[in-house]
Amino acid sequence: MPSKRQNPIKGALCGLAAGVGASAVMDIYWKIVKETLGDRPEQKPKGKNDGQKEAQPSTQIIADKVSEALTGKEVPRKDKAKAGVGVHYATGLIFGALFGIVAAVRPRLGIVGGLIYGAAIWALLDEIALRVLDIAPNPEKVPTSEHVQALGAHLVYGSSTALLTRLLLKLTGSR
Q1: CA-to-CA separations, 89 to 63, 100, 130, in angstroms, rounded
Q2: Which residue of 5, 84, 92, 125 is most buried, as measured by CB atoms within 10 A?
Q3: How far apart are CA 162 and CA 38, in angstroms?
Q4: Residue 110's Cα: distance from chain center in Å?
């Protein structure tokens, strides 16, 4: 029986929820990694030697850039950690919605698609975009093990997004 295309708006909404859940699962992955190996790479401050005013995690740098664009001011120091977490979850939400749209029109998209999606986010966002925007340290300054840990986190995110999106689409009668 061929798969039927679904409503991409419903897919986006299911993907939004899945993206939040997958971001939480990614946080659990990082908690386990941190307990065994140390801080997660994107939360390690970009050093002052890399051209920043002060050492900050990339998520906090992005939060500052958004705040400056909207209000003309950086995030207050006391709120930087929360703002960084907000950037992490907002990113997960956006990428979850995009996955949900694709999953709605490609119903057979499963965990393998999620793994590929997670790897693509890692390569395009973490490895390229953050460096091009001078938000993350140069790749040569980051140990290979940290690149691998970050890839693992994005594989966890992608597979979790795929599983949760599929479950939500099924629960809402979309599949």
Answers
A1: 12, 16, 17
A2: 92
A3: 28
A4: 18
**Main-chain dihedrals φ then ψ at residue 72, nearest 5 degrees:** 85, 0
DSSP H or E segment with residue 84: helix 80-105
In this prediction, residue 1 carries a pLDDT of 39
Q: Kindly state the tokens that stand for 157.
A: 């995110």
Burial class (CB in 10 A: 0-12, 13-18, 19+), 67: middle
As a residue count, the chain comes to 175
Query: Closest by alpha carbon to 66, among 47, 40, 94?
Result: 94
* Residue bearing tokens 């979309």: 174
% of the chain beyond a pLDDT of 90: 63
Q: What is the pTM of this model?
A: 0.85
Residue-wise DSSP of 116-149: HHHHHHIIIIIIIIHHHTT-S--GGGS-HHHHHH
Q: Is the pLDDT of residue 2 over 90?
A: no
- Which residues sit opposite 56 in a β-bridge? 46
Query: What are the b/e assignments for 125-160, b being 16+ CB within 10 Å?
Result: bbbeebeeeebbbeeeebeeebeebbbbbbbbbbbb
Show the tokens assigned to 2. Answer: 């061929």
